[in-house]
Batch of 2 targets.
Target 1
Amino acid sequence: MASTLPRCILLWIFLVCCFPPKHAVVTDEKSILLEFKAHLKDPTNHLSSWVDANSACEFSGVSCDPDTGRVTGILFDNALLGGEISPSLCRMQGLTSLVLTSNSISGNIPPELSQCSSLKVLNLSMNRMVGRIPDLSGLRNLEVLDLSSNFFTGEFPTWIGNLTGLAYLGLANNMFAEDRIPESLGYLKNLTWLFLANSKRVGEIPESLYGLKELSTFDLSRNKITGMLSKSISEMRKLIKIELFENNLTGKIPPELANLTLLQEFDISANHFYGELPPEIGNLKSLTVFQLYDNDFTGELPPGFGDLQHLQGFSIYRNNFSGEFPANFGRFSPLTSIDISENKFTGPFPSYLCESRGLKFLLALGNEFSGEFPTSYADCKTLLRLRVNQNRLSGQLPDGIWAMPNVDIIDFSNNDFAGEISPAIAKSATLSQLTLENNRFSGLLPPELGKLTQLERLYLSNNSFSGGIPPELGALKQLSSLQLQRNMLHGSIPSELGQCTRLADMNLAGNFLSGNIPGALAQMISLNSLNLSNNRLTGPIPRSLGKLKLSLIDLSKNQLSGIVPSDLLQIGNEDSFLGNKGLCTDKNMKTYVNYGLEVCNGEQMQRAGLSTEILVTCVLLSVLVVALLGLLLVNYRHYRVSHSCSEDDLEERGEKDLKWKIESFHHLEFDVDEICNLEEENLIGSGGTGKVYRLDLRKNGGTVAVKQLWKGAGFRVLSAEMNILGKIRHRNILKLYACLLRGGMGFLVFEYMSKGNLLQALQREVKGGQPELDWYKRFKIALGVAKGLAYLHHDCSTPIIHRDIKSTNILLDEDYEPKIADFGVAKATDDSPEGSECSCFAGTHGYIAPELAYTRKVTEKSDVYSFGVVLLELLTGRSPVEEQYGEGRDIVYWVLSCLNNQKGEINVLDGRVLSPVVKDDMMKVLKIATLCTTKLPSLRPTMRDVVKMLVDADPCTFRPRHEYSEKTEKVLL
Ligand SMILES: *[C@@H]1O[C@H](CO)[C@@H](O)[C@H](O)[C@H]1NC(C)=O
Ligand SMILES: *[C@@H]1O[C@H](CO)[C@@H](O)[C@H](O)[C@H]1NC(C)=O
Ligand SMILES: *[C@@H]1O[C@H](CO)[C@@H](O)[C@H](O)[C@H]1NC(C)=O
């Protein structure tokens, strides 16, 4: 007995140690996981299955070894998880893979993570982690280490050289202390993917890196790397992708580069490389993307480029290439984008760039191409941008060139083209900018221009267009700039132009226009600059023009007569009214401004006064009549289809009435039973007012979003959204197709936004760790939201205050066009004298204007504040409220204190999108954001001002900046 007992115990110990009961390990691992969960924030309940009642292997995102039942992996990608990583995680010794990409996890990497000795995959990229990266060189089994796109600081990890099993290494987009790339990375002989973009690296590329013979992706872009590209690069025979753009590299391209026969993507843009391209690199047959814009290259392109068969993107703008362009270029390639602008190419324009019929961007501005523009492009219907500004091209353009069903910009300006604008231009229905200035175009302006409803800029100046200005241009509701100066246009200014209510800049100078200035021009409420000089205009200046908020007016050199309205005198300058013999000024005004105008005599005063008054009265009367008719019509229709949808009805009759009530606001074909048979797997969101589902319609194949309102509580929301959204039509406001009601159930059918909300988009990254939203996309979103809000505030018959502007209420469509959504708490301002005094609290923490702490009086200016916060999110990539700002502090406070501390504005801007190219534009937007978030509401700009200021900061206004955007998209691929 005495001897058997200890033996039993020994045996027992042995058994427990070496064959632990599955059960015991599993409960222990469960408690470790539950502790891991306790450290996280999970706003969208991705961890709802992580409860004691389930086994660890039943937890979502957890994988286990089927034999031992031990946890081997944790995977959460883009699950909106916040909080921190629990230090105890590595007590699970079987863990081989920890992947928490694209979340909002903050805090440090716990040093204890180095005890996860089985770990093979550690991917924490795209989070908000801070601090130094602890020494993880103990993770000897690591094959994948990606910590890109966080906020790590401190020393760049040099111990990485000890992790010799690494195949993937990403440390890009962090804020390490500036230093060289460690020589020791050369030990990572198994490395295939190296991603160190935007990680504050300086100095030369260590020679040791060229010994990484397995490397296929080599990305050191957006650092400050100096020196030359060594010919040793040709030893990395497996390279597929070289990204060295935005550094400080110099020297010539080594001819040995041509040995990299697998090379597909090559980008050394925005450096200081010079010299000619070695002809050998024309033999890089696998090239798909070749970019070296913004360097100092000279000479001709290698003729071999004409034979490439896989080339999709080619961008070499802003160099000094010369000679003829390889004639066959594009002939055998699936080109989608080419930018050869700002070089010195001569000879005929290449003919085959669109041979594969997939070209979207054709940019060849600022060269010396001559001769006719090849007719082959008339069949290039995929083009989004066609710009050959500033060459020596001549001749007439075939009809097909004007008919581009997808085009955004057509720019033939500053050449020697002749002939007419074809009426086929009506087919370019998506055109936003038509730029033909400084050519010899002639003939009539086709009325079909009025069909281009997306047109924003129409630049036709300095040609020989004749005939009248087509009244159809009044249909261009998006037009913001109209430049027809220096042509031979006749006839009167059509009063229909007054309907272009977004027009900010109108220049009709230097034509033969006659007749009166139409008073209707005063309807162009956005007009900022008006130039009608050098025409044959007669009659008085409509007094109503004085109401416009112009900053420039030029009516000089016409035959105008009568008194100059005093408002206009104040806007104008010495030259504004010159050369109109009949114009005169009020005696009283003469003492303030003396523009060489005579003082009016009594008769002139009366005549002028009378005629403008009559005009104003007529306009007012007709507007009134139209408005009344409109009201009647709307009311009638509203009554006809919808009386069952009004709020009172809903609550009284809703419960018992089992017939569907439908109100539709846009034409859309769907079956009622489709809408009410929503499937849980299509759930795309859930919020305060209801659940949102994606629904693919049976009839026309379209997709919509359906919001099912929470029972009962939803009716106020329903009627708010219906009343506001149902009536609004604006590109940047979410379209409400219909509302459906039965019993206690309510459904709203919206347009479907495939890119989700702005918050999600800001957190997403694409392959390679770049944020999905680069600055160009972010700017587009900022401007779109501003336009939508400006519309709500200034262009609706009753101004509407949204009251809950935030990044989750801004939805993005396929093209990142933003739409303002969720009008559940929005308010029209005039329902009662104290209409904007609101009893119910609205808004979201972090976005609420400070004045709402002491007053319930909501004004447009509180929306402006919230919009400013959204701008800050776009600029900084941060959330409105983060622990890092300090107790009770928000992003507005944080940004201001950074700016005041002389820490430099640059530290505020999102390092992942900041580059020298966009820095100035981002700084402009930062100024606007600080204006919008000013404490005193009265000092904040109006949304209309904001739109104007943003347009000034548009990185896409001037060539060639905007072409970077296409480039950036490429980098993201
Ligand atoms: C890393 O490698 C170096 C030599 O290559 C060695 O001196 C050092 O001790 C190693 N560090 C660790 C933590 O193993
Ligand atoms: C490198 O990869 C090879 C082949 O996959 C493998 O056999 C070797 O062990 C790896 N080297 C290291 C240091 O892990
Ligand atoms: C780029 O490198 C040159 C030397 O090659 C140096 O003089 C210059 O300051 C560097 N520029 C930047 C921005 O680092």
Note: The longest helix spans residues 602-642.
Target 2
Amino acid sequence: MIDDRRTLLKWLITGAGIAALDAVAGPSTKIAHTKTFNVVVVGGGFAGATFARTLKRLMPNTAITLIEEYPEYFSGPLSAEYLVGKRSEETLTFDYTKLISEGINVVHERALTIDSAKRVVETEQSTYRYDRCIVAAGISFDFEYIKGYSKALADVFPHAWKGKEQLSNLKNQLDEMPNGGTVLMSSPNTEYRCPPGPYERVSQIAEYLKAHKPNSKIIFLDSKERFPKQAQFELAWKQLYGYGTAKSIITWIGAQQGGTVTELRADTRELVCQAGIFKGDVINIIPRQKADLFTDANGLTGDNGWCPVNTQTFESLKIPNVHVIGDAADAHSLPKSAFAATCQARVCALAVYSLFNKLPPMTPEYMNVCFSLCATHYAISVTVSYRQNPQTNKIDVISTNITPLDAPKTQYISEVQSAYAMFNSMVIGAFG
Ligand SMILES: Cc1cc2nc3c(=O)[nH]c(=O)nc-3n(C[C@H](O)[C@H](O)[C@H](O)COP(=O)(O)OP(=O)(O)OC[C@H]3O[C@@H](n4cnc5c(N)ncnc54)[C@H](O)[C@@H]3O)c2cc1C
């Protein structure tokens, strides 16, 4: 049994397709139960959907209810291509038909409260009883730390970091911007969803401007001194967008150069930072982030705004029998990415399986693979493997593999195809 679970764990962290589970989780792994367990999952994004499908494969008799507010899910990964008109909305939109066909009870309601004494999750319409509750409700934003910015103003100056409406809004603004216009971007220095995402977005916008509005430019005012895959991104920008020359489409101003934005002047469309006052035709502010509002309202978040968990099982350190997975979890040093979220979901499914079956917990390993599309035929990547450290409850980095700076041109091209393949496999694992 234990050996089966070890093999299973290895398969799960690499994100092997869900069908592969049947091969590895053979008859000896599936235990026949007299009791039917109830599991409630809050949030049907990459983490929640992957968890529900994985546990259903491991324990078909478990009654799983997935509470997801919306009938359709819109993907963050590859959304930069949608933003610049290279990808249709349909290719990023997924529903829950497959989950329902597999026997998962999907209800489109907003979860409001967890009553941990009664072990129920309440929505406006109903009450759902659980033996284990899995919360995978994503992120929320902190707008007010930039003077003059607010939730209401996010309609005018979109973050485009969550939800289809925000992305469509930014896309329309880019479409309507005249040739010769300036795009301003800013991003936070605290933990946020998809650490290299802003730099992929800059790259995609630069490619769009080069092709469609060649007199335009993009200025990135950054609150960070350094950013992920910086050397690789800067090399790509030099090769593709004249970065570092007077004609560069991209200007990056980091925190050390005074790029931290402190104020938005909405009426004059200006961002203020130490490096100066910058006027933008399109202004994209990616605000500071924290765990979603549901976890916050239910006492699952810690002082840093994220949800402390036991990194072996993802059980909350605040409320027993409740697990938090995905971006909302404080799972240092895993990044907040869809890949890591699906990896956590699988590890958590195996942990819940072990708990239900009274099996000893395992020391999980994790993985994150992150591709960044710098242009239509140019992508870079980083692959990191991790192991849970039972002493510190941290998730330690074991090895890192990044696109080398002297990679042949063919590698940048093939990494684009790998990025699409990885996206497809994450989507198949989560939504079928
Ligand atoms: C621009 C951009 C690019 C990205 N690119 C990549 C990439 O290339 N690779 C990668 O791995 N990651 C990428 N990411 C990150 C990835 O999108 C997130 O890490 C991932 O979506 C996290 O999954 P999650 O399930 O935790 O949260 P989410 O995907 O946000 O899902 C949360 C779900 O919970 C639901 N929900 C929230 N509250 C409630 C409630 N009270 N009741 C019911 N339902 C609720 C929401 O409707 C939502 O469907 C990118 C993100 C962005 C913004």
Note: The longest strand covers residues 365-375.
